[in-house]
Structures are given as structure tokens and as C-alpha cells.
Amino acid sequence: MLRIFLALIFTFLISSCAFQTLNRTKDINYISATTQEDLPNKNLDVYAPKKADNLPVLVFFYGGSWKSGNKEMYHFLGNRLARRDVIVVVADYPLSPDYEIPAMQASALAAVNWTKDNIESYGGNPDQIFVSGHSAGGHLASLIAVKEDELKSSENGKKLAGSILIDAAGLDMYGYLQETSEGEGKKYLNAFTDDPAVWKEFSSMYFLNDNLSPMLILEGERTYPSIQDSRERFMKRIEEKGIENVTVKIYPKKKHIPMITQFLWTGGRVYKDVLGFIEEN
Fold first, then answer.
1. Which of 77, 152, 143, 80 is closest to 119 using CA atoms?
2. In sequence order, what are the residues at sequence separation of 6 or more whose Cβ sits closer than 8 angstroms to the Cβ of residue 150?
3. pLDDT (tens digit, 9 = 90+) per residue, 165-197?
4. Residue 153, C-beta contacts closer than 8 angstroms, at least 6 positions apart
5. Rounded to the nearest 10 degrees, how much is the dihedral formed by the CA atoms of 93, 97, 98, 99?
6. Separation between Cα atoms, residue 126 and residue 219, nearest integer Å
7. Is the model's pLDDT at 37 over the cut of 70?
């Protein structure tokens, strides 16, 4: 009986998400096929269960103040979500000081469009694509969400299923830099230039519209004040426009970096929130 019991336990564990085998496809160039000559070649990684079939997809952009980071740092996120039947695409994008925010947004859009064109071959559903990111990557994800019309449509006309912003920076970069460009904010001018028109063009709160796909904002209670203030202004604009499909969840005692490193622990609240949002949309 003990042997049978242990065999059953082993079978259960092997079939559970913790032991699910994955396909990890690394260093796929997604820029060269887009004919966008002004953008550098950049790569992405795809994490998928080996028997993936029509699964939801999360395209993730990392943070790093628009000047640092790389996709290799986020294999833990790809692995853990893929084991929960979400295909994950983690993309590199151009960084400052070599490139400015227009190139970053164009590259992020190209990564999502590549995903829409190719993710079926990895077992993903092109009609259920979510964009996400942490910090500066959350900013890029927010720009894609509010400028959804710039994305390709799927066969049924759908573009995004939703967006998940994790302690996103720069939702109102225009307002922030107006106040701080001579001081604290000066360090961001390599990415955002010294032109207020550019600051506004790449601040997602000024492009909110009634067609916004469902959005989930996750924020740490102890994150940077600039992120809190920007999100509050963003949500005020949401309320003024009567947009109802934006949800904010504040994580008690969490600081900025722990908002992304908490994905290392699979039993945490963040997985319940993220997976629940994906399932609902």
C-alpha cells in the first residue's frame, strides 16, 4: 500500500505545475523582420509548456530606469508563469544613452507585433496577449496599452487582452519632469530628452481612451513617491474619463524592487492576482 501511495504522490507531483517541463526558446531576433531601419536588432525569449495549446501569453518588459537590464535576468519569471500555463515572452529593448524613448516604444511595439504573428507556433493564443512590465518596463507596457491602435489586429480584430503594470514608473513623466528636470529628474533626460513635448508624448496618462483594454496596476505601499504620485494622477484621469476596467492593488509594506522579486516565491499573492486577471480576460 505504501508503494502504491508513493507512486500516486510521485505521479501527482510530476503532473503538477512545479514539475511541468518547458520549452525555452532563446535569442529570437524580433526587430530585423519589421523593416524598422532605425531600430537596433534586439532579441526575445519564449517560455512555454512543452504541450502548450492555445494558452494565454504575457509579453514582459523589464525595468532599469530606461538605461539598464537584460532579459536573462528574468528567466525565473518566464519559468514560473509558464509552469502555470501562461506563455511568457521576455524582450530586450534599446536603452539610453544610446537610444531615446521613441526607439524604446517602437521596439516594444515590434516585440508585441512579433508575438501576435508568431506565438501560435509556440502554443499561444494570439487573441489573448497581455503586456506587462516592472518599473520602466511597466511604463513601456502602459504606452502599448493606451496606444493599442498602433498594434496589429488579430484575425478577429482583437489586439490586447489586457495589461499588467508592476510598480510602473513614468505614467505621467511629463508632470514629473516639469517639476524635477533640473534636479532629481535630470538623470532621465538621456532617455526622455530635454523637450517637454517628448515628455508628454510618452506619458501614457495623456492617451487614455474609452477603448482601453482591462488594466491591472500592482504597486508597493513603500515604493518611490514619484511612482505613487504618477499613479495617483493617472487614476484621477481614469476617473475623469469614466473608464471602469482599471484595477489598482496595493501591496502592504512592499518596496519597489521586491515588487518584482516576489515572483521568485510561487505561493505568493502576486501569482493569485496576475493569474486571476489573466483568467478573467
1. 152
2. 109, 144
3. 999 999 999 999 999 999 999 999 999 999 999
4. 159
5. 50
6. 28
7. no
Residues 15-30 pLDDT 10s = 444 556 899 999 999 9
CA dihedral 56, 58, 59, 60 (to 10 degrees): -170
Total residues belonging to the chain? 281
Count of CB atoms situated within 10 Å of the CB of 206 = 17
Mean residue pLDDT of the chain comes to: 90
Helix (H/G/I), strand (E/B), else coil: 214: coil
| Domains (range + CATH), the chain | 24-280 (3.40.50.1820)
Buried b (16+ CB within 10 A) or exposed e, 261-273: ebbeeeeeebbeb
Kindly tell me the burial class for residue 12, based on how many C-beta atoms sit within 10 Å of its own C-beta (0-12, 13-18, 19 or more).
exposed
Alpha helices by DSSP H, 40-165: 75-82, 101-118, 136-146
| Nearest residue to 194 via CA among 206, 207, 171, 177 | 177
Q: What is the dihedral of CA 97, 101, 107, 112, to 10 degrees?
A: 140
pTM over 0.85: yes
Whether residue 162 is predicted with pLDDT greater than 70 in this model: the reply is yes
CB atoms near residue 24 (< 10 Å): 13
State which amino acid sits at residue 279. E
Q: What digits encode the pLDDT tens for the residues 72-117? A: 999 999 999 999 999 999 999 999 999 999 999 999 999 999 999 9
> How many C-beta atoms lie closer than 10 Å to residue 21's C-beta?
10
Beta bridge partners of residue 44, listed in sequence order:
28, 91
**Alpha carbon distances (Å) from 209 to 35, 127, 212:** 29, 21, 6
